[in-house]
Amino acid sequence: GPMIYKTYLKTEHSDENIEFWLACEAYKKITSQRKRTSMARKLFTNYIQPEAPNVVFLFPINIDSPARKAIIRNIQEPTQSCFDEAQRIIYMHMERDSYPRFLESKFYQKLKHSLQTNGNNSMIN
């Protein structure tokens, strides 16, 4: 399911949302401050910073100015929760916008049909 959703987001050119959300989940699990700082800078460069020279730049995620400014303030000594607000905003975008479209898409319909067909076959066997 999640991989089909990610594939669908690529067709909409909005896969940076799920990528950022997943990266935040991994970031929260980091216990080493050194690794957290390194990962926080990477998240900032790849998803938050409006322009990233000399970097393979994905696309900046769509977050509001206060969330972006909070991250910029906290990036020097990042905490486990410094991306929480941005992650919440991105989740909300997906929940209200791209996920409902995904549920109507051929990607989801194909997955649903496949699961129903395989589910029925497994009940027979």
TrEMBL record:
Pfam families: RGS. PROSITE patterns: RGS. InterPro entries: RGS (IPR016137), RGS_sf (IPR036305), RGS_subdomain_2 (IPR044926). It comes from the Eukaryota. Residues 1-112 form the RGS domain. This is RGS13 protein. It comes from Anhinga rufa (African darter).
